[in-house]
Amino acid sequence: MRIIRFLLSLFGTILLILALNTPIGNWPVVGSLVAQSPAGNLPPLAPFTSPFDGYLQNAEPAVLKIPKELSIKGLNNPVEIIYDDRLVPHIYAQNNHDLYYAQGFVVAQHRLWQMDFLARASAGQMSEIVGSKAIPFDKMRRRLGLSMGAQALTDKLLADTATNQIINAFVDGVNAYIESLTYKNWPFEFKLLNYQPQKWSPHKIGLLAMALTDDLTGNSRDLELTNALKLFDERIVNILYPDVYDGQDPIIPSGTDWDFDAITAKFADTTQYWQHYPQQNPEKDKKNLPQNAQNLPNENKNNCTTAEAYLPNNFYPEVYDPNLEGIGSNNWAVSGAKSSTGKPLLCNDPHLKLQLPSIWFEVELNAPDINCYGVSLPGTPGILIGFNKNIAWGITNSGRDVKDWYHITFKDSTRNLYLYDGQWKPTIQKTDTIFVRNAPAYIDTVFFTHHGPVVYTPNPQLGDDLALKWVAHQAYGNPILTFYQLNRAKNYAEYEKAIANFATPGQNIVFAEKNGNIAIWQQGNFPLKWQGQGRFVLDGSKPQHDWQGFIPQQHNPHILNPVRGFVSSANQHPTDPTYPYYYISPDFEFYRNRRINEQLHKTDKFSPQDLMRLQNDNYNLQAAELLPVLLNHLDSAKTSFSAPESLAFDTLTNWAKNPVNDPQRWGPSFYDAFFYQINLKLWDELDTAGRVFPQWPATNKIIATNFNFKLIDNAKTPNKIETLNDIINDAFKQSVIDIAEWQVKHPKTSMAWSNYRGITIQHLARIPSLSYMDLPVGGGKSIVNASTKTTGPSWRMVVALGDMPQAWGVLPGGQSGNPGSRYYATGLNDWAAGNYYELQFWPDPNQAKPEKILAKQVLKQ
What we know:
The protein has 861 residues and is of the alpha+beta class. The chain is built from 24 helices and 29 strands.
């Protein structure tokens, strides 16, 4: 009997040990029930909770212990690293191979999981670690061609001798760190998500470049504008979505002469676009209506069809990602004549999706031919934004549309042949396997035309096949070489040479040098198009709808030492309409740029501190121009306002005197709720999937000019014709209701802007306990201190050039990617408050300030 009890006890112990060392998703019976739930991805409990090897080992001590020496294979000579008090590594190498090897090793120490996760997301490999819920995401990333573009870029980079050596040294450094790891010192997220680090590769560098390119060029509105053209006539579409706004303030000052002979597209489609997309005819298409819509009137009051009356397949799918609103940047440089130092000043703050770990990693790189400080993209070599002894540079997104959609006509449902130039051309078919954690692999077949991959195949019967042509699919430039040369550049000529290698994503690259030159160049590979090409969905069967080459690099907008004494960009139009090439954007900026230029014009001398204040400027120019008009519309009704409406009206009236989106002000909250309702009620015909609201400048103009056209009427009230005044008053009343509902949900919170909007910086894996919610930050979407709920300045930098540059900067986070480190979110509160750190630029290790040194380390063979 004792033997039986012993055997049962032994058997139970073995089962318990096995269970604790097996992921729940792999348990018999139970695993099949939870495999695709969050519980199915939980790690084995024994190793994860082990006090010797588990998650507790990721908790760093308050005083970080950095070994004085590390022996790693692959170095030619010892490399010295000095960590300053914010954990910024200052790397000193005796040759470039060791410099980039050490950079790879160091960044992997602090950001390995982030690098791996973002490369996986770009490649469409998230299902491998989180299961079947990621299949739609992975499928779309693959069909968009991110991995294809990454491979083309990688091949280009490795074909160049210089960048081949840089990349391989960097990759070897990353892998040297990975090879040193055991489970005990895996980054926390690898333990939590229960997967192990994989070797780094040149292709993963290409994937990270494609991820950033997708963020910065991923949005286009071809499909949404084509849907609008199906709803409205051409005149209304041009009012709602103009290519150019009146009163724009472009990057290159208006009136600039173009000193080149422009080339033109050889083939152009002269057919008026609205003839391709006639308005839907409700009577003719009544058979396509849902049964509950058969009694709708043939035509609504706005001379456009009711969008909701049609089956979704009559409209193209929505591709505009509202989460990318707020993606952009500011940069500017002022000449020595406008600087209190007598030398140029340069500023940059790229606006991206905010995340933890931070998007950027601060680093200083030193070798015999380089002394450079700035921020790098973790997982890639070099510095993307920064300065050296002689120059400084910064980047903002050009915003130009380099992505076009083509309607493909297939011969039949096999999609083996597609129509082009009157002939049937064969497609190329590729089978794509998506591996899925705790589930069978998912197989997708992707069809390729000469335009690009067929991304959307929503309904073969209606022929909604859309192929994507994207400049990122082919490698036209060498970004690694661009930043390798910029990091070492000494003057304008070397800056110009460096940026000529840069192709995508198109950027406005601002420049300043200590000898006095300032410049800005919109650099990228921009398609040569005929007027209107790419604004709507293109006909994939017409050769004249193909891209016809690219605008010559020397014809890209640029300026050196303008008379006004400054250069600037904020994602606005690069030129006035005299520029001889056609280009468009889904969202050129109209307010932030004008505010920056106004401030740069009005002051004769700027100190670095003045420009820090400008980067944090919260003045709401859009509200300043529109709110007085809105208040006039409300004025006649104010005698009948309820108490909450009177409070809202008075708050807006007082705020209009100085409309700044400071964190503690109530006015921005009331205005945000009000303007949101104006958009919903004014553009009710567009409040559905596949449609997009007009940009703010178009809405402002229509309201400010009291523009009277039938679309203003609310299509949802067939027995009443609303005027603009009705719409504004209705929107105001509804906004007060919305605010009251918000207050019920937040009974202990005031209506301060930082409470009402706030900013959330999420952990990349969307783990709430590792994220920072509702930070007290001011600003707004089209404000110099540009921010939305999830986007904002991902790095602020101000550089004062001189014999030895001085610089200041701040990240919305910290240097470490480890949530258990005090350096995970070091700068977050200072960033939110608009404070800066002096950047420690030490070209020689002997220049390091003892009080700023955290630790010294030597890497050696």
